[in-house]
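Support case: user asked for a sample of complex input and structure output to validate their parser. Sending the pair below.
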Amino acid sequence: MILEFAWRNIWRNRRRTAIILTAVVIGVWSMIFLGALMRGIADQMVRNGIATLTGHIQVHQKGFQADPSIENRIREPGGIRRVLEETLPAKSLWTARVRVPAVAANARHSAGITLVGIDPPVEKDLSFIGQAVRSGRYLEREDPRGILVGEALLHQFETRIGHRLVLMSQDTAGEIASRSFTIVGVYRGEMESTEKAYAFVTREAAREMLKMDGAVSEFAVLLPEEEEAGPVAAGIRNGLSPDSYEVLTWREMLPLVSAVLALYDQFIFLWYVVVFIAMGFGLVNTVLMAVYERMREFGLLKALGMRPLRIVGDVLLEAFFILGIGVLAGNVLGILSTLALKTRGIDLSAFAAGSEFAGLGRVIYPTLELRDILLANGVVFVLGLVVSLYPALRAARFTPVEALART
Amino acid sequence: MTLLIAWRNLWRNPRRSVLTMTAIAFASTLLIFMLSWQFGSYETMINASVKIQTGHLQIQAPKYNEDRDMRRVVEKPEEIGKRVSTLPGVAALTFRANGFVLASSRDRTYGAFVVGIEPEREAALSTLKDITRQGSYLAGEDDGQALLGELLAANLQVGLGDELTVIGQGRDGSVAATVLVVKGLYRSGQDEFDRSAIHIPLSTFQDVFSMRGSVHEVVILGDALSRVPEVKKKTREALRETGRDDLVVLDWRELLPGLVQAIQMDLVSGFIFYVILVVVVAFSILNTFLMAILERTREFGVLLAIGMKPERLVRLVLAESAVLTCFGIAAGILFGVLLTGYFQEHGIFIPGSTEILRQFGLPERIYPRLSGLSVTLGPVLVFLITLLTALYPAGRVKRLRAVDAMAAP
Amino acid sequence: MRTEKGMLKCGVAAALLVLPALLLCAAAVRSEGESASEIVHRAFNYMRGKTSVATVEMTIHRPGWERSMTIRGWTRGEKDSIFWITEPPKDRGNGTLKRGTEMWMYNPKINRVIKVPPSMMSQSWMGSDFSNNDLARADSIIRDYDHFLEETRVEEGMKVYAIRSVPRPGAPVVWGMERLLIREDGIFLKEVFYDQDGEPVKILTTDRIESVGEKLFPVLWTMARADRTDEYTVVRYDRIRFDVDIPEGFFTLSNLRTPRGE
């Protein structure tokens, strides 16, 4: 009976209700959209980190993470290959790389870099380098002398495609290995520091140069979307001897990213509160105005014997219904608009001034997560009801005399 | 004349007017605060990076920043130091020298870079002292002692009190070699750094690397990020005056180009968030206005009925809106500045983030930053929004028919 | 072509004299019939000798200052060498050992022998205009390059060969090209190092060719940057003896720790 009363009250003044509803709907829509956007940014950050060679999971010789030198290479990779084949979920991608510190030199310059020996066709789908080559060409499996360098390195060395770079590093015998490579392609990375740090050659070329025989430096795994890195890594760890090998997830390899990610939950909550405040004061005012407008009505009800508490309850219930409808509509709007953008994403480089970003593909894909949606709904409902308390209490205090006096 | 009537009208129903003004004031305050927060967080990020690595400004020999050639030095740095530290806007100043060496412990050898620092001055300028987790920080007279990154120490298998030898090339090309004793270990949270850095007293560095009293960098920390361009200019002038204009002055943008990129990216997404916020705010204000107008339908009906021309009514409504808006914005700016100002002094503390931030040597509070832009952009947008939103109800007013209006509940 | 001419001359001479002429003939044919590659090889071996012991004074010139060192060095073939700094006292006892392409450094102050890693190979040796690589891969010129004779001229009565040396494909050499000036008796007059765009980067010139023991040898060597006249390194041989007997265990790490000053 009270419910029906409250419900009917809402629809008695459609315009008033519509106005309040709009505020709620817009508020909820923006929260959901904003939340999805922030998740999208966080995801993009993680994706970038993973794409820059980290992958979801890496397997190394024990001690490689602390000291990524040739002494800590995986001498017998066969066992790891088997374990990976057995434990990885379908559609995972994995590869074995050579990664050593080296010095690149030409006639006028020399600098320390990280030399990465890759399996070009597999690496293409696994890390950023597959899409990052901007001039020249990508590596092929049969490319004994080809090398890919970053654009920043190309400038630093004052060289160009077709010129040679001499790479020096320490081989497995502890002696200095040097080999000449020809620049076949130039890539652009997320940051200049990436471009200056990494140079790519084929795995075979690296092995030959460093006298590595069948050894590799690391295995990198890219999991399909749905899989969580933690459990898969645990599975791999079970199959390998902990004294010889270390299995790391991207969270362990990218502590800064993990830290920022943890903060994101807080950020999203804070933003929700901010949006609610933005919406909230409008809500309070309109509800308050509505309540005052109905002063006569409430005064009459009181005169007819309705208890103040029930009036408070009625106003709150009306608020609840309005919030409910608004939230529902807002959710629908929010989810739809997010999904619409999800496939194409928002291309930030279109907004960013400065040519450095053009072509870097800084795209954000808004990502819906249930917990964010639930949180948004929760915030709106709880705060909405709290905020309606004041007008409700006011409504209950209208005396019949006041009400009738003011028309 | 219209304004006078408008003014009086507003106060006939103080509750409604106050409510509307409050809505506008709130909107302005919120926008001011959020934008100040945004800028403040960038400033916090910049100041943090600057404190960890480069300082706000550096005086170097030309081209040193590009090739880090040992021979590109700043001679007689004390003269420069004395002159520049007295400049207004300079909070701290110190000297640094850098060199690449092979560091060896009993069994292992690794490439590392050595930084010669002035311990007391360095502590005022960078986070090195704060991130020294084991052992103790350097003191000025600690000749031959060193601070190592934890990872480097682990790789070399040395601990506190152990010896390590370093050998590299001095400024004049002679062999620079010495034995160091590990006094403390630090962890910056960045593996690259912890794996390859060694800090020693500047005097030791200058001696071992035959620097003849010179250094590579004069590092300057400013009072505030906003004062940096001014300090840069004054520093340049000071150098010119003392005849040292062969040296260059670089600011943090040139020293940390990666940071600038990162902030630019962030600004764009921040912009999108701000736009969404403005949209929500706009609707709130629209609602408030609509409600206010709706409430007075009867009143308008009566006015029209007694002969007031619709255009006049519209003008009146608009005038009322304008007055409300101006007061609202004024209040909003005042309150916004006060609120933001308070937090600018005391900082905002995000619960749950302290542990992580401390790990990286970052400050635990964010300080919003008031600026000309943050104080005006929000209120200006609110002003425009209120003008636009006031037009819609005013438009409705125009189309009111007296009879219908008076019959409104 | 040249062979034919030589033969012609030969024929005429032979008509007049017999044995001495034949000998002269043979000599003429040898230098004229040599390929660029052979010239370079011959010169290289001449300059190195089988072994050598030398005392040099190296002076590094930079804008505004100058630094000198006295160095005592032993070499065997192109593979092994060892040297110690004897002056100034600050650097005394510092030694460098080269075996094959590997290099080690010894410093008496820290009393350690450290192997030179790849990261230091491109750096200058003792701050001079010679890099560690220059010293370690001194034989690179005969191993990694193909040589082409560009021109033969005559200076001060001696033939001088201008040779262009191009790195073999795959050779780990940073230079795009080198140009050599070699005298017919095997003395290197000039070596110019070019980058891959054909621009000169460094120039090595020799001077003051004097009689040292039984052979002629340039006593002054200058390595300078091509684009600056105020940065160069001069090496002056105070004493050099070739084909000295050097004991077996001389080029070893343990020996590196015991500097010889004599």
